[in-house]
Amino acid sequence: MVDRYPFIGEVRGAGLFIGVEQVRDKNTREPMSRKACARIFTECLNRGLLTMAYAPSFRIQPAMTIDGGTIDNSVEILREVYDLVEKEGLWKL
Predict the structure, then answer these.
(1) Tens digit of pLDDT at every position of the chain (93 positions)
(2) Fewer CB atoms inside 10 A, N or C side of the chain?
(3) Is 86 helix (H, G, I), strand (E, B) or coil?
């Protein structure tokens, strides 16, 4: 996702414990606005994915019992929302 989206500054972590940095500018690493993050959070929630994306840096920390189908669905929802953010230029708010 770092290579795909202009507003993902960094993804770090190990296994399923991942941190995502949402930025306005990849070069300066200026954090994405709270308004844009809140929209990402709401869009994910409306699609059935509860995230901590209401902040510029958030973590993904699923239960150890998560199955592959749930992971795939969650990633697809996040991609769908990030595609919307990119299309509407929300990260620039």
Answers:
(1) 899 999 999 999 988 889 999 999 999 999 999 999 999 999 999 999 988 888 899 888 888 899 999 999 999 999 999 999 999 998 888
(2) N
(3) helix
The string of DSSP codes covering 18-46 is EEEEEEEETTTTEEPPHHHHHHHHHHHHH
Instruction: Enter the DSSP assignment of 55.
Output: S
- Residue 58: what residue type? F
User: Domains of the chain (ranges plus CATH)?
Assistant: 8-92 (3.90.1150.10)
Q: Each residue of 80-92: b (16+ CB within 10 Å) or e?
A: ebbeebeeeebbe
Residue 23, burial from CB neighbour count under 10 angstroms (0-12, 13-18, 19+): buried
Angstrom distances, CA of residue 43 to CA of 17, 54, 67, 81 = 22, 11, 23, 6
